[in-house]
Specification:
By secondary structure, this protein is α/β, with parallel strands linked by helices. The chain is built from six helices and five strands. The chain has a five-stranded parallel beta sheet with strand order 3-2-1-4-5, sandwiched between helices. The longest helix is centred in the middle third of the chain and has 18 residues. The protein binds coenzyme A.
Length: 161
């Protein structure tokens, strides 16, 4: 069984992430969407809330692969070994992503030999990230083009508190 991790902060998951997931699901049998717990970022949603949201928005997605959502702490390569993953999936949106992604991929490969598979999301998502979504939502901007309705609903509820 070909297993891959798709790690990230997912604060929140966007249509861009779902696009990468769709492409990855044609290459692997099982994809573990891996929510980083110890991010240097201070997330709007707790890791449990992010897992819950990802489960919610992926439950009706038609996927050739089995999709599983988990959280992790520590080194991504250790989690990959623990889960028998043969690859790490990362989305590459623009050249500006490349330097950081290359560094991570090479360090991870040096540590355990694991491969990183880069997938390009649809062009219409190349400018998208989760910070922009959070900022737009906090200023009452329309985020419906960028995130599924359930995410929109929960982000608005969260910001109201
Ligand atoms: N569509 C839309 N947005 C996307 C995207 C896509 N396809 N792919 C990435 N993004 C956005 C994310 O929303 C995020 O936006 P934000 O910065 O506004 O929150 C941004 O791009 C960064 O992406 P993300 O995928 O969440 O990566 P990250 O840099 O936050 O997380 C980890 C990277 C968690 C995978 C990495 O730090 C890690 O592996 N950490 C564990 C510790 C470790 O092993 N360290 C050694 C690594 S060499």
């Amino acid at each position: 069984m070909k297993i891959a991790l798709y790690p990230g902060t997912f604060d929140p998951i966007t249509y861009g992430h779902l696009d990468v997931l769709d492409r990855a699901s044609r290459l692997f049998d099982r994809i573990i969407i891996t929510v980083a717990r110890n991010s240097s970022k201070s997330p709007l949603f707790s890791s449990e809330e992010r897992v819950d949201l990802i489960n919610e928005v992926t439950k009706d997605v038609k996927s050739e692969a089995e999709l599983v959502v988990k959280t992790f702490e520590g080194l991504i390569v250790d989690f990959a070994t623990q889960e028998n993953a043969r690859a790490i999936i990362r989305g590459l949106r623009a050249i500006s992503d490349f330097e950081y992604e290359m560094q991570m991929a090479l360090v991870n490969r040096k540590l355990t030999g694991i491969a990183t598979v880069f997938l390009m999301p649809h062009e219409k998502f190349t400018y998208l990230n989760s910070s922009i979504v959070r900022e737009l939502a906090s200023l009452n901007g329309d985020i419906s083009h960028f995130v599924p309705p359930e995410v929109e609903k929960r982000i608005k509820a969260k910001l109201k508190k």
